[in-house]
Each structure stands twice: as C-alpha cells, then as structure tokens.
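Hello forum,

I keep getting stuck at the same step: I have a sequence, I want structure tokens, and every attempt I make locally crashes halfway through. Rather than fight my setup again tonight, could one of you with a working pipeline run this one for me? It's a single chain of 118 residues.
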Amino acid sequence: MARWILACGLLAALAGLSGCTELTLATVDAKMSELAEADCHYTDLLLTGTYCKSRQIEGKQAKLYCFRTIGGVDCYDQTDPYAINQSGRALQPTPLQVPAPQPPAKDKADAAAATPNG
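Reply #2:
Ran it on my machine without issues. Output:
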C-alpha cells in the first residue's frame, strides 16, 4: 500500500512540476508499470478508464492435429482437413489376419494327424 501512495505522490509531483508533457507521462508510466508489475499507460486511462493492465496473456490454446509429412510436420485444427481418408488418395491400413488358435494335441500321433503334411 505504501508503494501505491509513493507512486501516486510521484505522479502528482511530476505532473505538477512539468506541465504534463509527453516525456514526463511516459516516465511516470514506466515507473508505475515497474511498481505495479503491470502495463500502465495514461492513454489507457483516458480511453478505457483503467490505468494498469495485467501482463498475463489470457487465451485458450486451440486443439491441434499434427501429421508427419515429407517436409516436416503440418498441424491443422481438424482431424482430416482435406478429406484425404475419404478421397481414395491415401492408403488405408489393411487389417492384420491372424490364424485362429488350434487346440493343443494330446500326443504325437494326434499331432501328426493334425498336420496336413504329416
């Protein structure tokens, strides 16, 4: 709180002594920004009514879908932006065909009978 009182006093003293020139206001803005740890500009006070703005960037990251290509990595905001999977231009993965498991043979005679070459 003492820092704000000091800053306001500094602002009032500099404005009174210098006649509110552009350079003085820029100096006051820089000092206030340093003390408040925010971006302070007198033009914002005139236009929006708030002198200092937070330095935090508020935003939301869009969900990206990235694909490895020949030249590098391309990212889009859609899973398939050019509908390549439906166009027939892309190779579709073929399902892996795994043979069905055979029950284990009870003895060697049954094993030999179960094999087609045996």
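The longest helix spans residues 2-18. If your local run keeps crashing, start a new thread with the error log.
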